[in-house]
Every structure is written in C-alpha cells, then in structure tokens.
Amino acid sequence: MNNTNCEFEYDQIEDAFLKIKHRGPDNQCLLKLDNEYLGHTRLSIVDTQKRSNQPFRFSDVICTFNGEIYNYIHLRKFLIDEFNAKFLTEGDTEVLIQGLFYMGTEFISLIDGMYAFIYRDKNKIIVARDLYGQKPLFYCQNGKALLAIASELQVLSCLISDKSICFDGLKDVLRCGATVAPNTCYNSIKQLLPGEVRTYESGELVFSSNLNNCAKKVIPKQIENVFDVNVPSVFFVSCGVDSTFLLNWTNKFNLEQLRFLALKTPSDQNFEALAKKVEDKFKIQVQIKEFDAKNNDLPFMLSETLRIQGEPFGDSSFINSVALFSNVEQEFKVCFGGDGADELQLGYKPSIIIAITAIVTSIFFLRLRKNIIKFLVTDSYKNLLLRAILGSINDLNIFLSGYKSISSYNKLGLDGTGEEILSSKSDTVAFYKTFLMRRMSNVFLRKLDRASMIFSKEARSPFLHNDSLEISNPSLFQLAIPKINLKLSLISKMGIFFVFRKKIGFELKSDNLRDSLETYCYNHRKSLSILGLNLDAANLADYRTNNLFRIASVIHFLRKLEDAK
Question: β-strands 56-58, 61-69: how paired?
C-alpha cells in the first residue's frame, strides 16, 4: 500500500490487513517500508519453516506472493545453472524472488502455477496474476498512481472513500454471474486481468503486458507437479467424469496423507451407489457428507455470498462450494478437484449447439445466413436458438448466458444488439473457447478461491496444469459429445452407464427457490432504479432461476450499500 498519495492511518491498514487473515492463518506480517506498507498472511504448504515466511527479502528486493509455483524445483535448478543462484530455503517464494531479480518479468513466462504477487526493488514495483486468474489481485489507483493492492476486494473497500458504483461491473453480474476483470462493483477498485503483468515506477504505471501473448516455457506443464504435496490433503470425489479421471493420477503417487471427500446434494439420488463403485474400482474410502438444508434459505445465501465475495456474485452453486470446503477438517490444507476440465475439454451441455453452429457456418454462405437471420425477427426462444445456430454472435452470447430472449436480456440494461456473424468452424470454436475461458476465470475460479480460502484451504486444479488435456482443435465429434476423450478413457474401468450418465450439476435446486427469488426480486425491485431498470412480475416470470439469482444478488448488494449510508 502506497501512503504517499492517500493518507491511510496505520490502524486503518492493520484493520484492513486482518480482513484476509483467513487466507493465511500460519503467519501474519505487516511491514512499514518508508511511505509504504507490505503485508502477507501465510498458509504454509511448501517449506513450512519460518525461513519462508513473507514478505520475503533477497538482496535489496522484497516480495509477497500468494499461490503455488508447481515447477519451482525445475526453476530452482535452472537459476542455479544459469546464474549461479544460491538458495537458503526449500520454498517456491525464494525461487520466484530470485527469478525476478535475475531475469525481470521474462521469468514469469517460465512459471507453471497459480499466483498473484507483488515484487519491490529500489526503482519499481512488479505485480502479476497467473494465466487463468486462479489467484485474485485487486488494486486501486489515483490516476496512474498506485495506492493499494490486495487479494480480496474487502481489504480495499474498507479503505477507499469513493464507493461510487461501477454500473458496468453490475451489468457483468447480470450477464454472466460475476464482475469481469478489470471491473469490480466499485469505480475506484479494479482487478488485474488473468495473465496481466504490470510495472510501476515511482508509484506510476509505466508498462503492462499479458502472458497470453508470450509462449516461452522451460518445460511443458505437468500434472505430476500439482500432486507433489507433503501436507495432509483432500481429494473431492464428485463421482463424475472429471474427478474419476483424476483418480487415475492419484494412484500413481504415494499420497499417504490424501483423504477422499464427497458432498451429497439432494438432487443426486444415486450418489451413494456411485460412490461405492468408485471406492471399489480405485480401492479407496470416500467420506460422504450431507448438504445442509439451511443453505437453501435465500436470505442466508445472499448474505453469506456477499460477506465472502465482497460484491454481488450470481452463481448459486457458490453456497454448495462453501459447504463442501466447510466439511474439510482443519488439519487438511490442500484440496484437489476437477475444476477446469469442462473448459479445456469443451464439456458443457451447450456444446451440441456449438457443434451444430460449426457445421452450419462451414456449409452455408455468410450472406445466406445473414438473410435468414433478418427474417427471424420474432422475439422468442426458438428464434434466439435458430439465430445462434446460424452464427449470430449476439444471440450466441445471450443463449450461452442463460437467457431465453433478447427482450429479457435488454430489460436488464444489457446490450442485445449486434449484427456480427461467425464466418467458419474455426471462428465458432474460437468464440466458444473464449467464452468458456472468460467465464472460468471470472466466475468459477473466483468461486473456488473464495470458497476454499475462507476456510484456509488451498484449492488445486490439476486439469489446468497439463498441456495434453486441452483440446486445441476439436473435431465435430468432440464438440457434439462433451469430454468424449475423458469418457472413452474411463469406459473399460467404470462402464458405459457410469461414464455417460446424466451430469448432475452443483447448483442449488429446491422446489421453493425460484418462488423465493421471484418474491425477493419483486419486493425489492426499486433498488434497481439506480441502474435504470423497472421490472414487474410479468418480467420476472421470463427469467430462469439462475437469471433470478443474479438479479437478487445485485439487489442485495445495492440494498446493503443504501443501508450503510
């Protein structure tokens, strides 16, 4: 935190710092460096000795780092060979600080891991976030001058005086369930983009780049590195394709401290039988926890989500994720799960629509498709779907966002206009992959980070750290049948009925949830007037349950802001 351009009192900074104590219960340290403060809360996993506590110093530089560098052993050897580097710890933090010391920002492209960090030398500050955005990083500036950086939005929101609402951020929530980087719900607070690297000199931004534009690597990403852990750990068993595929990997390692945990949701009636089959096939014991029915209470859901996220978050499955991590015992620090498989393997249900779109955009001329789209003027779900299949980018966005019509989309102040058309199969695949990756980074990985860290657990996603698991140029067959590669690899062991059973989602489902959402949104709809929205009961009936949860989360946030005035 830079205290030159904005006079923060030490007590203010300490109070803000302690708001993220849950992210690192093993050690907390807040340092004052001239006119700056640098703090870190540590969850010790690699080199658990005090020597690896942070903020970490080397020569005349200092850094604070959140996350894991999975290939740190390889990078350590690389730095010794190339720069004759000397190490005093066995941790990845020292590898990071020395790599930046010797190579500058070029070193970042060599890292396989999840991270957000701040690096400080005499002349500059470097801040960066990992390629997928697994670890968060929020900041506020005064013009180009950097004022403060933090891992959670709540740290900054309690320091800033300007709490003006970012309308674009709230529209992100209505559109896809969460604010999309660089937006947050506040104008004065931003997020680093996934893969973004920023350099500040004299407190002012001088350079920004993105790792997406850099292909240099020392070695390929390897899933084995993700499972290299020497503290008690938990593997989440969902009895789905993703986690079952990963169980093949756990069998390859001697993970004596690994336990297996599952959360049974009310909607999955066959879960015990499936879990028993997984136990028998992999010779493991799965501890099954029951979902607490109180989590279906709407006021609890909205309040708990806002408390943990610090801003509206419109994905109802977040509460299930929180419930899952709340059942992990204190001694277990690392949790493995199948997150990222759906994105890398293009595994969501709408992929069949994307497959049809890819065929249509390959066969029919662009001009013909444009003319057909012009005739489909009636605002209905059927026409929305037809226009999407014909390659209308606008209609595809609305369809993939879960809305049933352009009018229901527009009534929320979202832009449902646009005439761009996909021109080919490759365009279609590129569009879909971009959509999935943006949603993964801004919604699903944020959900995973907050749900795990509120209980001081590190969530690892092995699928995101293996180059061989990503489908870069899918066939129509791979698009039409979600995660076909993973499924085929499991058939011999688990059987065709297990592999191709209907997927059970993790979102909340209850008979009265939709009614509760409609009632809540209708009773408090006046809160949306600040966004220029006016919804009545007929409008609300047009929305699906997940759409209503997004609306309710925005309303709840706006009501809390109003109450705080």
Answer: antiparallel
